[in-house]
Amino acid sequence: MLALTLTSLPASTASAATVEPGRLLAYIDRDRTLWIGDDQGNWRQQLTNGVAVTGAVWSGDGDRLAYTFLRDGRSVVGLARFLPEPVTRELGPGIHPAWSWDGRWLAYVNEGTVQVVNRDGEPAGQYQVGATSLVWSPDGRYLGFTRPTGVPDYTDCPVLELGWVDLASGQTRIAARSFGTFAWAGDSLRLLYASAADATVWSYNVQSGTARRITNRFPNPCSGPFQITPDGQRLLFLDFRNGGDDLVVLDLNNLQERVFADLPIGYPSKALPESYVWVDPLGRFAYVARSYPTMVTRVDLSSGERTVLVPDDYRMLLAVSPDGSRLAFLDTPHGKPPEVIVRDLRTGQTGSLQRAGWAAWQPSAISPVVMRSWGAVWDREDRPVAAGAVARTWIWGPEPFLTLEERYADAAGGRRAVQYWDKSRMEVNQPSGDRSSRWFVTNGLLVRELITGQLQVGDSQFVDREPANIPVAGDLDDRTGPTYATLRSLLAAPAAQVGREIRARVHRDGTIVEDGPGGVFAAYYVPETNHTIADVFWQYLQEESIVWDGADFVPGRLFEPTFFATGFPITEAYWARVKVGGQEKDVLIQCFERRCLTYTPDNPQGWKVEMGNVGRHYVLWRYGG
Prior knowledge:
Layout: E1 5-8, E2 24-29, E3 34-38, E4 44-46, E5 52-58, E6 64-71, E7 74-81, E8 87-93, E9 95-99, E10 105-110, E11 113-118, E12 123-128, E13 133-136, E14 142-148, E15 159-166, E16 172-179, E17 183-184, E18 190-194, E19 201-205, E20 211-215, E21 226-228, E22 234-239, E23 246-251, E24 257-260, E25 277-279, E26 285-290, E27 294-300, E28 306-313, E29 316-320, E30 326-331, E31 339-344, E32 350-354, E33 356-361, H1 368-386, E34 402-407, E35 415-420, E36 425-428, E37 442-443, H2 446-452, E38 454-458, E39 461-464, H3 484-487, E40 505-506, E41 512-513, E42 522-526, E43 531-534, H4 535-541, E44 544-548, E45 553-557, E46 574-580, E47 583-591, E48 596-599, E49 609-611, H5 614-623
């Protein structure tokens, strides 16, 4: 039975939405109260009141916390939301709360029965499987669990039965006998575990029911890490065959191994704290620690380069910030309350959370769910280009050049994951949303921001800046072609009459003259923004081409829905004299909410109409490079 106790705490004038991405953390103080605050100690918000919190875990989307507390000696699970205001909800007796990667579902164990609730705490199912631990598949379809075998085992690392629940059908299956923790591959189809039969790493496919050994090395997931990288493509563990200080990174696609030998890893207990092997959200670096004294080392997973970040510290490492720039240590001075010390690796400055004994940063918005969704969007239009299956210009670009979190008040947890491509930016605002929707991944209204100078940080929140003085098309050092700032005065220009030849030419100062080469006509009027799309661009938006359907290259509409990639037009189409590759050319330009399209008559077929490098331009405007 789930309790329905709801408690609201007074909201402060500040909120989690005002904290910069990567700086929000949760912590438990000496009185067993759960708080959130920024890691500089400038702001905090109490989440619980009158209960002795024993542990907490962030939701995958960073928007909520599940916590446990004791009542009459029994563990109880609670749920805390902090945006738009702090609200807690008692769910009922239980232990081991585990969130799905997208923050949509929460599961916990009550006397072996798995209780599943939605993100608001409403019951969604229960499964009597005798579980002792839980791990969600990245897509949230399956819930893996371990349970006792029924054979007495009094060791520190008992043999367990490993199984999973299919949430769609409610069916339960047992896959194997294992020990320690386990993980899911990024495809959500393979359970990864240490086999009780031979102590090596095995993979079990939940669809085919087949199992196979994927490495002969010996992990010990009872004592060390056994985790996938955020992209879901690699498994990390320590090889205990050689003493437990060799970090193995196993590629789950080709089963190739990369071994980082003799790393300074260790802690004076039977189990290594989770924070002592940590991987950044992009899977670039591993942070490893050894105590005491405490040494923290960063390992580049591509080059193998090792950088000692902290050579000698007397405190325990508690956590690493999502961007890897700050470390949290637990200080337990004799005769004084504990405190959490946050050390900024870039500046060397430290701050403290007094009377705190545990802390964890809000998880990065960059997750396997988000990264796989970005990849699926790119695949549809640009995978055929990259594979040479079709000859046409890029819709997004050959590869992303920047992935990070940005503050956005109305996204889950007050921030969102974004990925910049040459032509645009991909975003996921609500990881718990419908991943089957075309709009689960959106691409930002970058052009509107560049032209108006209004940097959007929420659905209705903006920061005023100057419009971008960056050429809309052509070379960045072009001194005569129109910039985004040029177009600001043309946003309200009247719509061209359908069928009219387009001869208007725009100069950098915003002057319009009717001396363009023509040959292009106004074709489609869009009432939502009161602008008319030029025929060459409208034909492009209606184009049939080769796309990727998730399994093969097939014919299909390149833009579906029509304005998904571009948004609505916000300017008319204008000719301009633009420098391209050092040569001046006549180019037709029309800007939409998300993209700017260009038409160069003397370009080869497939490249006459192109997307402008809006993603590159936006990063230059917002971040300076």
